[in-house]
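Memo to structure team: turn this sequence into structure tokens by end of day. - J.P.
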Amino acid sequence: MKLDDFFKTLKRPDTPNNWLIAPADFMIKPDAVAPVFAAPAPALREAFKSVVLRSKGNAVVEQSAFGMHVVATTLVFRFRDDIYVRFIPLAHHQSTLAIYSASRAGYWDTGTNRRRLEDWIERTRTALEAGGK
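Reply from structure team:
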């Protein structure tokens, strides 16, 4: 499967160990609505990638102009989670994203996927507001 086709083929499990943040009108109903960023999609992608790589245990394993696959490894138990991101251009100098995080193992994740995505989005927003620093 090509990275850019991930969301077209996504079948979410009925388990509580995954989380989706996306635009309200996204092709899959999100658990939370993604914010609109005051930056074009390429700038959003670079700010997001910088945030991801500054956290221990994360690796970008695949990326494209508008997509990214990250593997996050928990520090204590070494569980691996897959995170897929689609960067969505909007109006001039605006963009948003769809971001899905799912645990590879286990039924429950104690909210880890939701907290991770919320943290990354907030840190990305902060980075963009600070001029990408």
